[in-house]
Model the fold of this input.
Amino acid sequence: MAQDTLTITDNRTNQTYTIPIEKGAVRAMDFRKIKTDPEDFGLMTYDPAFMNTASCRSSITFIDGERGILRYRGYPIEVLAEHCSFLEVAYLLLFGELPNEAELQDWVYEITHHTMLHETTKKFMEGFRYNAHPMAMLVSTVAALSTVYPQARDIRDPKNRLLQIKRLIAKMPSIAAMSYRHSLGFPYVYPDNDLSYTENFMNMLWRIVEPKYVATPALARALDVLFILHADHEQNCSANTMRSVGSAHTDPYLTTAAAAAALAGPLHGGANEEVLKMLDEIGSMENVSAYVKRAKEGHGKLMGFGHRVYKNYDPRAKIIKRTAEQVFEVTGRNPKLDIALELERIVLDDEYFIKRKLYPNVDFYSGIIYQAMGFRPEMFTVLFAIPRTVGWLAQWQEMLNDPEQKIARPRQVWTGHEVRQFIPLAKRTTAAPLP
Ligand code: CMC
Done:
């Protein structure tokens, strides 16, 4: 009879150990029993970059990278993107179920009525240099909210946590819009409670002197769909940061700022900005082949391609490609699309990329849409951070409610010196050269 166990023989001692397999995983702590003698620390597993280590049990977002499947709480991303609003999906991610009409109405009301920022936050923002990167402004300002809401430190109280969750989801677009207007030197626009989440965001971004901002419905919907697609993505670099920093019981504003800082990196959410820079650098369709050749020769990566988990077409990229067409009907076609399509065509047909299973990811087409909508590339990662805040907070809640979780604290494999004899300064003859 097949058993859900793993039998290991330690060839150093000839001892055999049997450890349980649960949901396709073994517990790393079971390896600690494997020792050469009672004084031995026991075996560790070594896994830089978490290539094959589950750091938690989760029921929020499911990805099958080989088959290109993404589901939130069991619902396929394609279905949610077609039928739901972003706040409806936010409710699903946070609470595990889709809301009914009354629940959704209350939820939207609650989020809408937390969009204002304290005036001191506005002043804080004014202190940034005129050319500060909007993502750096966002990260710092989210952290600064911790000074406005000191009661957020009580992370054990679920009611208090929920209040901070609502504030964070509501205030992210307000901070994002302020960072945008700051870099343009435009006055800040206050939220308008008559508008939906994305319409209000557009209002805070783009209202000039008109008494009431009216968003183009197709663009507001496209932004809502993009927000749904970016809302969560299981244990990615920033979600892992959220869990790791949150595991120290840091307040949710500082924790979210840390997660946003992780997102800012060009290998993570910062890739969307890099894609646009890359398309600019390529310049025209004729240059695409040469650019791909350079990437294959090791001169830089193709931004917007490849993924740690997806070894197939990123399902979000498929939806974004469709959404792009709807946006271009309103805005006109972004000429970069042709370069992007040519790049995708060449890559999908190239042995180097086929062998490594490198497909377009979520960041490949999103920037082209954002640019057509009027955003500058510096804003792209900020646009990613707004919806991802929901995912971070859902992951944070799940971590705090998981009785198995403790402060995150990995082990290391020591490669340094054994204890060394100290030599007083005057007697040191050889010195390591300064790098
Ligand atoms: N262009 C060219 N070659 C690549 C690329 C790329 N974009 N991505 C991976 N490779 C190669 C890589 O050089 C390596 O080749 P070899 O086996 O010969 O050494 C192989 O493919 C495996 O790549 P890896 O770097 O070991 O894969 P990883 O899982 O550590 O990295 C990644 C995943 C997303 C960081 C990487 O694919 C990458 O840097 N892509 C470009 C940046 C990007 O688009 N990031 C957005 C990711 S999706 C959204 C998000 O996370 O926020």
User: Anything to note?
Assistant: The longest helix spans residues 158-184. Residues 236, 267-269, 271, 295, 301-308, 356, 358, 361-363 surround carboxymethyl coenzyme *A (CB under 6 Å). The chain is about 50% helix and 5% strand. The two ends are 60 Å apart (CA to CA).
